Amino acid sequence: MKFITNTKPLADALALGVVNANVSKFHNKSNVVQISATDKNLTINIEADRIITELTLHGSGDAMTSPVVMVDSILFKQLIGTLTSSTTTIEFVEGGIIVHSGSSKFTVPNKADVEDYRLETPVHPQEGAVTVAVTPENWKYVQSHQMYSIAMNFTSPIYTMVWVGDDGRVLVGDEARSIYTQSSKSTFASPCLLKDSIINLLASLPEGAKMAKVDGSYVVSVSTDGFDMVTQIIPMYESDEVGSYNADIISGLFTDLTDHVTASPETIKRVLNQANLLSSSSSDEIMLTINGGKLLLKDNNVESYIDVNGNLEGVECKLTTDLLYQTISKFDGEAIKIYARVVDGQVVGVIFTDDTLFVAMAGND
Fold first, then answer.
1. What pLDDT does residue 39 have?
2. Confidence (pLDDT) at 365
3. Which of 28, 143, 160, 172 is in the most buried spot, having the most CB atoms within 10 Å?
4. What is the 3-state secondary structure of 49-112?
């Protein structure tokens, strides 16, 4: 069977559906796309961790149905992205497909045994279901400003996910490194836990994407003149099995904040970059001290005083240099507020905020 469709919508659909960051050796099905066709539609199925996607493109086929093929997801996306002809013909042959573009043709072999290895199909929202607009810029913010703090080991598996609330809160943290970040970028209808693959997807969506809740999943719909995309997002939920994120305890760190100083993040970042250049290990530490209108950053190689404004005094807290540098780098404005976290009269950590991003870091013993 041969199916002909417009090249640009096909390239755009694959660019949206195949998120490079979500293709992983730890999730085998993310490495392939499943392709099939009818006389009117080309269907491309895609999976990633906790994500099921279906792309539908219009066109013309010379048979009622095609064989089902599975080809390398990144390879197919990249190949289609290089084509310059206005239309592309996909020929279904034994062992894979042949892609025809202008006077050229390209053989793309099956990567999986299609008899034993089928991708799932996303659920669809019912007609008239309540939808909310997805704001990709919000998730790009989470991706660029908070995901650095996500846990990378499985000592506490729940912190390898992002907690989102029904009140807009987005929490990303790592219990092992004692760092927690908070923003107000979520539009999810109920508290749940999202894998990083879902954040990658949400950040890559175009304007106009809609999301509806379907049972325990969320379904994202994108409709354009050239293609339609339906993606089922499968969050996890706090339970005895998964555990608790302790979201209210974490958010409590960012309430009732009073005494603080205001400082230039660019100045602090410059000093921390210098400290990193002279450090010998990513685990090296630096002492942060606030007294007399000055913030002192000091380790074995660096001693730098920075002017600050405010009423916070008597703070001394040892922090991991590189993690502090990463944190300060996430603040975009000209000023940040710095608070001390005090327990039983002792400074146990510091809190940084610009009123959009909140970050709590515990001091090192």
1. 98
2. 82
3. 172
4. CCEEEEEEEECEECCCECCCEEEEHHHHHHHHHHCCCCEEEEEEECCEEEEEECCEEEEEECCC
Q: What is the largest CA-CA distance in the chain?
A: 80
- Note whether 22 and 30 are within 8 A (CB): yes
Q: What are phi and psi of 183, to 5 degrees?
A: -135, 180
Q: What pLDDT sits at residue 115?
A: 74
pLDDT of residue 48: 97
* pTM of the complete model beyond 0.85: yes
Q: Nearest CA to 173 among 348, 183, 353?
A: 183
Confidence at residue 273, expressed as pLDDT on a 0 to 100 scale: 98
Residue 78 Cα distances to 101, 165, 322, 332, angstroms: 14, 36, 36, 34
